[in-house]
Amino acid sequence: MKKMSSQYLYTFLLVTIILLWSYGWVLTKIGLSYMGPFTFAALRFLLASFAMIIVLFFLKATKPKGMEWIILFIVGLLQTTAMFLLINYGMMFVNVSKSSILIYSMPIWSGILGYIFLHESLNYYKVISLVLGISGLVSIIGFEFFTIQNKSVIFGECLLLLAAISWAGANIIVKKYFSNHNKMIVSTWQMIFGTIGVVVAAILMEWGQPIQFTPMSIFILIYTGVIASSFCFTCWYVVLTKLDTTVASISLLFVPLVAIFLDWLLLGEKMTINIAIGALLVTIGVYLATVVKPKERRKIEQFSTNIKS
After folding, report:
1. How far out from the chain centre does Cα 106 lie?
2. What is the DSSP string of 43-101?
3. Closest CA to 20 of 274, 233, 309, 203
């Protein structure tokens, strides 16, 4: 009974993350009109890191030890520096809807890396759900990715895919080395290390460029920094270490779908038939991975384990 209650709690956290991150994409689209992409990322994560440090101070949390510092530095480079620099630069060439979709190809890479490095099983339902999820993303993106002749767009899309792989790599490292650690500490220190890299990039690339501070831009920075970064990434690490990597990651495929819906609802973006088809495929994929026939999934996993042994 207690285990079931915990599962409901982690599922609730996952749904909360999906909704908050989805709205964050809409606000990011607006926020990039007030300042350069690297400057936006730097201010966002300076706020996020500051908020996390304050929380750790009041919690009197312990500091990492020994090799944990180096591992957290690597996670910070992957999770914050590389991921968000690649995202913000890639978004200079690719629209927000497609950017969010490409970033959330992360479950594909998480499933593959989890299988290779964590020896997590890829049973029938997970494989099918991944295939459906990929098909849904391809439907939403359209065939432009494979046929488009604009080299700058292709370049931007490749950067966004690299960002997704970087995120997946950070997820695997966190799950491998910090499953039993305080996730607030893990999230804070990786963010601090990653923020240093983002700030350096902003200074080198956008020093002297104008920044518009308005009530709206300040709200966007606070939301994307404190809520979408500090709160959501801490919750994500909790969910990631308590749920199967593939299941948790596949569920995040809902983020670009909700973001596209919010773009349509709040910003007037067009809703096309390929987006609707893609949403259906992703929904079925998530359903197969997380809901349908749990007993049969366990039998398949047990069967796979017996074969390996």
Report:
1. 7
2. HHHHHHHHHHHHHHHHHTPPPP-THHHHHHHHHHIIIIIIHHHHHHHHTTTS-HHHHHH
3. 233
On whether the CB atoms of residues 170 and 79 are closer than 8 A, the answer is: yes
Count helices and strands in the chain by DSSP H and E runs: 16, 0
- The number of distinct structural domains making up the chain is 1
Tell me the residue range of the domain where 171 lies. Answer: 2-308
First to last CA, the chain: 31
Of the candidates 80, 146, 136, the one whose C-alpha atom is nearest the C-alpha of residue 260 is: 136
Question: In Å, how far are 56, 62, 69, 84, 167 from 185, measured between CA atoms?
Answer: 7, 8, 11, 20, 18
Tokens representing residue 190 in the block: 């990786």
From residue 26, how far is each of 41, 95, 102 by CA, in Å? 15, 11, 15
Which pTM does this prediction carry?
Answer: 0.77
Cβ atoms of 234 and 269 within 8 Å: the answer is no
Q: What is the CA radius of gyration of the chain?
A: 19
Amino acid at 202: A
Reported as a single tens digit per residue, the pLDDT across 39-98 is 999 999 999 999 888 888 877 778 888 899 999 999 999 999 999 889 888 887 877 777
Q: How far apart are CA 260 and CA 271, in angstroms?
A: 8
Residue with tokens 């569920």: 251
CA angle (203, 205, 209) in 5-degree steps = 80
